[in-house]
Amino acid sequence: MIQVSHLTKKYGQNTAVDDISFEVKQGEIVGYLGPNGAGKSTTLKMLVGLLQPTSGEIAVAGYNAETELLELKRHIGYVPEEAQLYEHLTLVEHLQLIGRLYHLEERLIAQKIEELAKLFDMAFQANQRISGFSQGMRQKCIIMSALMHNPDVLFLDEPFTNLDVGTVTLMKALLQRLADLGKTILYCTHILEVAETLCPRIMIINSGKLIADAPVEELRQQTNQTALNEIFAQLTETTGIDEKTEEAIRIVMEGTPDA
Q1: Are 205 and 18 in contact (CB under 8 A)?
Q2: What are 117-163's pLDDT values in tens digits?
């Protein structure tokens, strides 16, 4: 469902994504991990058509991102890391707009809005303007927008940001069931605990390069580590944490009476 071949994105002399290739099959949930600035969000923006690659090829749900981008977008749902919402609209008006952009029937739009708002505990706020929403409520609005049109492929960039525990629990179960039903999910995060429980397969990008792509169990065997955070630290060479911690303490305490 997702095919990426030699994908590269450059900004001047800086290479944000460096010649990466991978495939995600129908029904897979794949975790796309990496440190801040590693190229995760840049990759997703190219996959959904928000950024033009410097080179390489992308196909999603059988559609080429260069020649069939509009059709590709009909089949995907996208939860960006930072979304721009129409703040003067209410939740109902925003979701109506999304449904109409995807040419859903008005009856179905109304039904989905009512049921999704209830599912995400937003029924009381359904006719309130988004400008008055908390960060968690805004995130729920973004997620509902991505689900409205029943996409074949979901691209999720830190989707659990600002969500309460109950909604995170719901989302984990929902994503598992969607995968069981044949949906393809690329889950981009740096929160390793969530990825470890949700994603059977992990890809790791570091400094723009794809440095790992394997089932979690295979990565455990490869690194002789058990926990995903230990695997991640080893593969990304994130070492010297104890030394850095002591250095941070020294900097913070320096010059104070207790130092």
Answers
A1: no
A2: 999 999 999 999 999 999 999 999 999 999 999 999 999 999 999 99
The Cα 232–Cα 238 span in angstroms is 8
Name beta bridge partners: 59.
3, 64
Q: pTM (2 decimals)?
A: 0.89
Q: DSSP characters for the chain?
A: -EEEEEEEEEETTEEEEEEEEEEE-TT-EEEEE--TTSSHHHHHHHHTTSS--SEEEEEETTEETTT-HHHHHHTEEEE-SS----TTSBHHHHHHHHHHHTT--HHHHHHHHHHHHHHTT-STTTTSBGGG--HHHHHHHHHHHHHTT--SEEEEESTTTT--HHHHHHHHHHHHHHHHTT-EEEEEES-HHHHHHH-SEEEEEETTEEEEEEEHHHHHHHHT--SHHHHHHHHTT---HHHHHHHHHHHHHTTSTT-
Contact status, residue 187 vs residue 175, Cβ threshold 8 Å: yes
